[in-house]
Specification:
The complex is a heterodimer of chains A (about 120) and B (about 250). Chain A has about 120 residues and is of the alpha+beta class. Chain A is about 25% helix and about 35% strand. In chain B, helix 4 links the parallel strand 3 and strand 4. The chains are: A alpha+beta (about 120), B alpha/beta (about 250). The complex binds guanosine-5'-triphosphate, magnesium ion and zinc ion (ZN) (2 copies).
């Protein structure tokens, strides 16, 4: 729904990081999309080229990894992957769980190559 | 603490960005970062929250699909609360909702979101100068009708309220877990229509909510039946008192 805004946020984050690596060009952005994030990976891929012209991410690709929901049970200690609409502990059934992954959309990595102009 | 992602835990900005050792193939470099795309919003939300706490204002973020009865609930509820209320309403195009709510006498401000499908913390921050927080006990924020996006955007509220009307499917919490699992209170609205909708079973909605590891209370009410609003009024008064006490004993 707000995937275009997410694309822009990705580019902002990437550009901030890129500033630490002068003379490098952005080839790809690695992104983790959580099962509970409400973000549609396909839409992200589709919209990214529309958000990137005139930025240092122009021509760069998105590499998206889907992150299933994971919980850690504070009662029995079990850590497990769960369906997004069944978040209780699969081992003991307790609702006393911490959601440890699958909640957000994260920029996890940048793939850079030597900038042709600088070489 | 979460070793896998560091982001699943709410309000842990220190863990959110953490550099990992990078691998370096011949002509390409992989830079590992770990940055939440909602980090910028959360930073602004934290500022909002600090302002609200300092003034002892209880902020409630109302979220639901379009037409679930958010505006009608505020119209019916506000005159019944013995507290000073104000309202921020997010709407895509019109100011109809703001005009409806303003009739209660509560200061009401419209946030026109244009194309945006949700409110974010910066929109709330931009609207704050219109409000005198010293003269408000409760600030209701009516989010844009949408069951997906609003869930991702912390506004700085104290509590999130998810509404589900009996005209919708009773399994909505299972279909939109991202929003419902974070709700602090679930309201089943338009209960006056239940006799016409035998297929809607409130206990099934609550069961779906429990599947999301949620212990949030679930109240069934109708904006057309004032008596049905009493448990919600009590919940709000309790939360308001609890928020004030928390501020007295643990200043933000
Ligand atoms: N019968 C009945 N109708 C209701 C109730 N609450 C709201 N409605 C009707 O449902 C329709 C939508 O209600 P609103 O309060 O505008 O819903 P909303 O969630 O604010 O809608 P958006 O702001 O567009 O997302 C209106 O026609 C209301 O009169 C209720 O408790 N009972
Ligand atoms: Mg409305
Ligand atoms: Zn959105
Ligand atoms: Zn367990």
């Amino acid at each position: 729904m707000h995937e275009l805004a997410l694309c822009r946020a990705l580019i902002t984050s990437a550009e901030r990081e890129l500033a630490n690596h002068p003379g490098r060009q952005l080839r790809a952005l690695q992104v983790s999309v959580g099962a509970l994030s409400g973000c549609e990976p396909d839409l992200l891929t589709h919209l990214f080229p529309h958000a990137s012209p005139d930025t240092s991410a122009a021509g760069a690709k998105l590499e998206i990894t889907f992150q299933p929901a994971r919980v850690r049970c504070t009662r029995c200690g079990q850590e497990a992957e769960v369906a997004p609409n069944a978040l209780c502990c699969p081992a003991c059934g307790s609702p006393a769980v911490q959601l440890i992954a699958g909640d957000g959309v994260l920029l996890t990595g940048l793939i850079l190559r030597e900038d042709a102009h600088v070489q | 603490m979460c070793n896998e992602c560091g982001c699943g835990l709410p309000y842990s900005p220190a863990a959110r960005k953490q550099r990992l050792p990078a691998e370096a193939p011949s002509h390409e470099t992989v830079i590992a970062v770990r940055e939440s795309l909602f980090g910028a919003n959360e930073a602004i939300a934290a500022q909002n929250r600090a302002d609200f706490r300092r003034h002892g204002v209880l902020v409630l973020n109302l979220m639901s699909s379009p037409g679930s009865g958010k505006t009608a609930l505020l119209e019916a509820l506000i005159p019944r609360l013995p507290l000073r209320c104000a309202v921020l309403v997010g709407d895509l195009e019109t100011d109809n909702d703001a005009r409806r709510i303003a009739r209660t006498g509560a200061p009401t401000f419209q946030i026109t979101t244009g194309q945006a499908c949700h409110l974010d913390a910066a929109m709330i921050r931009a609207a704050l100068p219109q409000l005198d927080l010293n003269t408000i006990d409760i600030l209701f924020i009516e989010n844009v009708g949408n069951l997906v996006c609003p869930a991702s955007f912390d506004l700085g509220e104290a509590k999130r309220i998810a509404l589900l009307s009996v005209c919708e499917g009773d399994d909505k919490p299972a279909k939109y877990p991202g929003l419902f699992h974070k709700a602090d209170l679930m309201l089943i609205t338009k209960a006056d229509l239940l006799p016409h909708l035998p297929q809607f079973d409130p206990t099934r909605s609550e069961a779906c909510l429990r599947q999301l590891a949620s212990s949030a209370p679930c109240l069934t009410l109708s904006s057309l039946q004032p008596d049905s609003l009493v448990p919600l009024q009590d919940w709000i008064l309790r939360e308001h008192t609890a928020g004030r006490l928390a501020h007295v004993w643990k200043p933000a």
